[in-house]
Design goal:
Blueprint lengths: L1 H34 L9 H26 L3 H9 L3 E13 L8 H7 L3 E14 L5 E4 L1 H4 L4 E5 L5 E3 L1 E6 L4 E5 L9 E2 L10 E6 L5 H4 L3 E12 L12 E4 L11 E4 L3 E9 L10 E5 H14 L10 E5 L2 H6 L8 E6 L4 H5 L6 E5 L2 E2 L3 H9 L6 E8 L2 E8 L6
Length: 403
Amino acid sequence: MRQKALVIGVVLLVPFLGGGLIGYGVAKHADKRGEGGGIAIDEGAPFQEARTAAFAAGADDSAGETISNSRHNAITRTVALCSPAVVGINVIEVQTVRYRSPWGDDPFFRQFFGDQTYTQKVEGLGSGFLISSDGYILTNDHVAGNAKEITVTVTSGEKYSARLVGTDQVADIALLKIDGKNLPYLRLGNSDDVIIGEWVIAFGNPFGLFDISDKPTVTVGVVSATKMNLRAEEGRVYRGMIQTDAAINSGNSGGPLVNSLGEVIGVNAVIYTPNQGSIGLGFAIPINRVKTVVTQLKSHGKIERQYWTGLEIQSVDVRIARYFGLDQVRGVIISNIERGSPAERAGLRVGDIILDLNGERVDDEQSMVAIIDDSRLGDTLTMTIIRDRNKKTITMKLEKRPT
């Protein structure tokens, strides 16, 4: 009986002791896994999960803030900086129109009815920008040069009556003035430092959209080319122009072309529109050229260009180039010189071939005339000529034609 009781006790005790040892081993193994960086389940687990959830939410907020910040760049900052100084310009011109006779231009009827003319008001619009806090505004001559009434609208919605301080048809620049104080204005940059391929922004009032929102329209592109010489039109000379693919449309004329630093590098003036729309060929007058014009317009209201040279020229053709032994068919040959003219006093002669003028290449008669037309009374022109198959340098001063 005693032996039977001992056996029963052993049978009951062994599982108990075995289970205790197994439980101890499992617990110890779990502690080691926790210390080694594995998955550990303890009292702190719920708090760890809470901290992880909070960290994830913060990461989302940070990512959203990063994306939002990335939307603000040099372009958007420049737009915000420059927009307040851009203005819309509305003008009224008085034009004289000739009445078309039902008999045409027959001189017989003209002796009875004469030239029938009448005047009419023509409305136009364009763009401009403030260049001083006291209200000086730059725009194109073809926008406001002949205007009788000029209304300027600023981004606050206020409208000002502007007066024409001065204008220059050749440079296609007009200077306006409104009465104001502490007005926002743009800084004028250095167009000689323009980099082909750099980002630029064109501001303006295309199609009169400024009148709808009192805010300028913005287009972005790059500088496509520099020192582009275009053909003169209506007495305007476009030399050394900045070409851009930033969209410029009707009404953008007179607006600023700005670099990513917020500096004006040009005044939008010309677009090439074979299909009556922007195709990415826009041109701006370089601001360094504009600066000299503005100084004269402030002082005198115009640029004095009533000078003469006394030269008659014609383009060099293949026969002339061959006769004079020229390497290239370019330049102009002097065909006549007036007596007592600046050209005669400079020592120029008939038969001289002019290849360069003021450091610029002369290709033909048109390019020579464009350079001279862009000059002012009193300027000195330096020419590289060929005489007797030898190169020579001659200077000529532009003088006022005697009356």
